[in-house]
């Protein structure tokens, strides 16, 4: 056994020896450390091959040992005992107890029952069996007939819609769907298309109360975050800028990106609410931070008055 294990490990040892100089060579920073050179690969392949050969040898040796053992000390065969034959009646009863789903589905009768199925007349000595098709098949068959009659009546006699009319109807439906889709698509909000919309303020307030007051205060007066009620802004004061700040956040400064938490519509709502806070001057408001926002054109002016007076 000792000899054998030495034999088993010798390829591994030899691989170690072979691999050692390769390891000793300082690896260039440009060459990836996991990549193997061709010679290393060859050594590895040879090693694996040797391992497989070794395994096969061991298996064959084992088999040989078994054969030799069996030859020297043959073991007697176990005596085979045939199972007791089942008598016909019990077999039939057993069979009857559990009818096969398959034969039930196809209403197959066992061959032993055939005698009972014979119809008592013969044509040239040929007997017929009374073996009706299963009920489901008949239902299907007569069903197709009824369907055909209905189809014939609806489309050909009572003047149901023809192919052309059906086509037109489908196209009308698709056009209506398209219109509905485009209408909802126009509802999509982003930082470029956002417009002041006073109807969104109420919903925006609930969103603000649920998500933002911890840092911006109940009245937007500012706590950890800046006051949202003055005209000084860190990241721009147009409705588009505010939308952008809320959507993408300022993660480095503790303002989260709300893109994943709130839908675009929700952001539009909360942004409209924030714009409605302009100039509300709540008590204990935080000192203004950032730059004063000067609207570039009249339509950029979104003040408390302009937004609520629509
Ligand atoms: C964890 C605290 C925190 C929460 C919650 C939070 N913010 Fe902020 N927010 C901040 C901080 C801090 C800043 C300032 C970022 C900076 O210094 O650049 C800020 C900045 C802003 C700004 C830009 C202000 C400016 O002067 O440009 C807006 C707008 C804003 N937050 C809206 C919101 C809205 C809307 C919510 C809720 C959906 C919200 N924030 C929730 C901490 C928060």
Summarize the structure.
By secondary structure, the protein is mainly alpha-helical. Helix content is 54%, strand content 5%.
Can you tag this structure with a few keywords?
two-stranded antiparallel sheet, binds heme C, signal, metal ion binding, Cytochrome Bc1 Complex, Chain D, domain 2, 310 residues, two-stranded antiparallel ribbon
Explain what the structure shows.
It is a single chain. The chain is mostly helical and 310 residues long. The protein has a domain at 198-308: Cytochrome c-like domain (Cytochrome Bc1 Complex, Chain D, domain 2), CATH 1.10.760. Helices cover 54% and strands 5% of the residues. The chain is built from twelve helices and four strands. The chain has helices at residues 2-24, 38-72, 88-97, 101-105, 114-117, 135-157, 163-185, 201-211, 213-216, 239-248, 264-276, 304-308; strands at residues 118-123, 126-129, 232-233, 291-292. A hairpin with a 2-residue loop joins strand 1 (118-123) and strand 2. Helix 8 (201-211) packs across helix 11 (264-276). The N and C termini lie far apart (97 Å). The protein binds heme C (HEC). Residues 211-212, 214-216, 224-226, 228, 233-235, 242, 245-246, 250, 253-255, 258, 270, 274, 289-290 line the site of heme C (HEC). Heme C is lined by residues 211-212, 214-216, 224-226, 228, 233-235, 242, 245-246, 250, 253-255, 258, 270, 274, 289-290. The chain crosses the membrane at residues 43-64, 136-155. Pfam families: Cytochrome_CBB3, FixP_N. This is Cytochrome c oxidase cbb3-type subunit 3. Residues 281-310 are annotated as: Disordered.
């Amino acid at each position: 056994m000792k000899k054998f294990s030495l034999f088993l490990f010798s390829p591994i040892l030899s691989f170690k020896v072979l691999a050692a100089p390769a390891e000793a060579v300082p690896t260039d920073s440009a060459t990836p450390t996991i990549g193997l050179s061709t010679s290393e690969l060859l050594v590895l392949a040879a090693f694996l091959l040797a391992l497989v050969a070794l395994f096969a040898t061991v298996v064959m040796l084992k088999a040989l040992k078994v054969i030799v053992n069996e030859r020297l000390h043959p073991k007697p065969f176990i005596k085979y005992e045939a199972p007791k034959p089942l008598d016909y009646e019990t077999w039939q009863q057993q069979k009857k107890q559990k009818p096969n789903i398959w034969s039930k589905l196809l209403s197959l009768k066992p061959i032993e029952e055939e005698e009972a199925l014979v119809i008592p007349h013969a044509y040239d000595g040929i007997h017929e069996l009374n073996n009706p098709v299963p009920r489901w098949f008949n239902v299907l068959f007569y069903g197709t007939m009824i369907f055909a009659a209905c189809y014939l009546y609806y489309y050909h006699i009572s003047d149901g819609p023809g192919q052309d009319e059906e086509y037109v109807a489908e196209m009308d439906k698709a056009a209506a769907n398209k219109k509905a889709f485009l209408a909802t698509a126009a509802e999509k909000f982003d930082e470029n298309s956002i417009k002041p919309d006073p109807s969104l303020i109420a919903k925006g307030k609930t969103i603000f109360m649920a998500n933002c007051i911890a840092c911006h205060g109940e009245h937007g007066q500012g706590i950890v975050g800046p006051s949202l009620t003055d005209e000084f802004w860190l990241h721009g004061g147009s409705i588009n800028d505010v939308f952008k700040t809320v959507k993408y956040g300022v993660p480095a400064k503790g303002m989260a990106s709300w893109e994943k938490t709130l839908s675009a519509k929700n952001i539009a709502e909360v942004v409209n609410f924030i714009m409605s806070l302009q100039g509300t001057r709540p008590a204990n408001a935080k000192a203004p931070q950032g730059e004063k926002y000067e609207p570039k054109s009249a339509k950029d002016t979104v003040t408390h008055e302009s937004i609520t007076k629509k």
